[in-house]
Amino acid sequence: MRTYLDFEKSVAEIEAKIEELAALAEASGADAITQGVELSRLKTKAENQLAAIYSKLEPWQKAQVARHPERPHFRDYVAALVTDFIELSGDRQYGEDAAILGGTGKFLGRPCVVLGHEKGRTTQERLKHNFGMARPEGYRKAVRLMDLADRFSLPVVSFVDSAGAYPGIGAEERGQGEAIARSTERCLTLGVPMVAVISGEGGSGGAIAIAAASTVLMLEHSYYSVISPEGAASILYRKKEGDAPRADRVKEVANSLKITAQDLLELGVIDAIIAEPTGGAHREPAAAVAAVGAAVAEALDALAPLSPAEVKQQRRERFLAIGRFEAAPAGA
After folding, report:
1. CA-CA distance, 81 to 71, in Å (whole number)?
2. 162 CB-near residues (< 8 Å, 6+ apart)
3. Domain-by-domain residue ranges, the chain?
4. What is the Cα–Cα distance from 143 to 88, expressed in whole angstroms?
């Protein structure tokens, strides 16, 4: 059964009528032509309504789409785009972390190291993968995978979909901040091309730890931010400890944070936006995955001619350019 977001209520009502009419027609054997015309009319109405809604989503609504449980996950991208995938586990220091998965394989025929956050779908899977919130060993595993890529001259493709790194006491005791910093540093020092895709949530240092890439791509309805809208609203507007911020405050903060792909492209934080099917990637996962595959392949092709030194220089210039501006001439 499809999961609808709050702002999709009008579409949900139309699609419920479509299902009801289809079931009634099948059960009663009503006139097929009449029923077909009515079904076609309702489907067109639903599609138009969906297109209208998604053409003017607000930042907070985009954050909700980015979190939709039916969006493609890391394993979906690997299954569709990577052949001969060999998963590698463990950080060789403490243990295995299932929130970040990775290994070697052929991305659309190109040998690569592929890694990314995995949230899981069922309750059991979500608990296993800790809802995509990695612990230190997850980031140390990412470093190990990137070391492997550098050693064997394999490009790296990463998929970012996490609300943030796990903030638990055990994670902090095992050096969460240091692990994130080391992973970010390894991204920046790679002598091979790295392409990162913000496929859902891109939350805080837990995201940038595997997204400090040569090219950063972002799905149309994903988000990428130093903090979640709820987290920022809680810090700025809560009245007392334990109080949740009002919904209108969360929306206000989401607008101010500039978390959308469109805002971040304008700011130079990302390099390109990958269009999603009408209604979001969760409505047509196969089409969304194919679009991501094509965009990543194009980015890798553009980076392939660069030498290791050129790859490092390109990445350095890319990040130094973020936030750079030219002062207005004197007297302007």
Report:
1. 16
2. 99, 117, 119, 132, 133, 134, 201, 202, 203, 206, 207
3. 9-56, 63-320
4. 12
pLDDT, the chain, mean:
90
**Which tokens in the block code for residue 35?**
């029923």
Q: Which of 7-11, 76-80, 227-231, 321-325 has the lowest mean pLDDT?
A: 321-325
The set of residues, in sequence order, having a beta carbon less than 8 Å from that of 284 and lying 6+ positions away, is 277
CATH of 63-320, one of 2.30.40.10, 3.40.50.10860, 3.20.20.70, 3.90.226.10: 3.90.226.10
In sequence order, what E strands does the chain have? 82-87, 100-107, 110-117, 156-162, 194-203, 215-219, 223-225, 272-274
Residue in the structure block whose two tokens are 């304008």: 266
Q: What is the pLDDT of residues 81-135, one digit of tens each?
A: 999 999 999 999 999 999 999 999 999 999 999 999 999 999 999 999 999 999 9
Three-state DSSP at 93 gives coil
Contact 120, 131 (CB under 8 A): yes
What are the structure tokens assigned to 16, written together?
A: 């419920």
Per-residue pLDDT of 134-190, as tens digits, reads: 999 999 999 999 999 999 999 999 999 999 899 999 999 999 999 999 999 999 999
- Name residues whose C-beta falls within 8 Å of residue 106's C-beta, 6 or more positions apart in sequence: 82, 83, 84, 112
Percent of the residues in the chain that have a pLDDT greater than 70, as a whole number: 91
Residue 91 corresponds to which amino acid?
D
